[in-house]
Design brief:
The protein has about 200 residues and is of the alpha+beta class. The chain folds into 2 domains: about 60 residues, no CATH class; about 130 residues, Nuclear Transport Factor 2, Chain: A, CATH 3.10.450. It is built from 7 helices and 6 strands. The longest helix is centred in the first third of the chain and has 17 residues. About 10% of the residues are buried.
Length: about 200
């Protein structure tokens, strides 16, 4: 399917109709310079440009939208924008599971991130999500599994996130987040592989 609209210019002569008794040249103000032919060509050129414009942009797939949410979260964390990071989660209904227990609600989790990771960039570290797999479960539900690495000088973190993504209010959010942490990096960790 073409992204472009097909346009056909129909002049009165093509349409089989007579030319108007008040043509452009008869209405022309003699004080204005320029030819009627030049004006008509300009109008046709403008119409041609409009017709060459995309008819509609292809909507991204649900998987692409979900991957964008995760990429936006990673970028927000890495610039120290914890509220931006938390926009990826359902508010207030998200369920967090880690360390063998249910964690705080949306606001409590935001408060925890600000308190424990805020301040100096060294405390926050650099977050990397990788090896991301998305499986669509329904038009408004998906499962996402990914590895993560929080790269920082002291106490780096590694692990796997399992997430239930839901489409709520026209956008994808994490409704359930389960974190399984590990003490050592994944052998295929892209960050560890590029260290000196």
């Amino acid at each position: 399917m073409s992204l472009f609209t097909r346009c056909e210019f129909v002049t009165p002569a093509k349409a089989g109709g007579p030319l108007s008794s008040q043509s452009v040249s008869q209405k022309r103000d003699p004080r204005v310079r320029g030819s009627d032919e030049g004006r008509r060509l300009g109008v046709f050129a403008a119409l041609a440009l409009l017709c060459a414009a995309p008819a509609h942009a292809e909507a991204p797939s649900p998987e692409a939208e979900i991957r964008t949410v995760i990429a936006d979260m990673q970028a927000a964390w890495n610039r120290g924008d914890f509220e931006g990071y938390m926009r990826g989660f359902q508010n207030p209904g998200v369920v967090f599971v880690s360390r063998g227990q249910f964690q705080r609600d949306w606001q409590g989790t935001l408060d925890h991130y600000v308190r424990d990771y805020g301040g100096a960039p060294e405390r926050r570290g650099t977050l990397h999500f990788y090896d991301i797999k998305v499986e669509m479960l329904a038009p408004d539900a998906a499962q996402l599994i990914s590895r993560y690495h929080l790269d920082r000088p002291v106490d780096p973190q590694y692990g796997i996130n399992t997430r239930l993504m839901r489409r709520v209010g026209g956008r994808w959010v994490i409704a359930l987040n389960h974190v399984s942490s590990a003490d050592t990096p994944d052998p295929n960790d892209p960050v560890a592989a590029h260290r000196p």
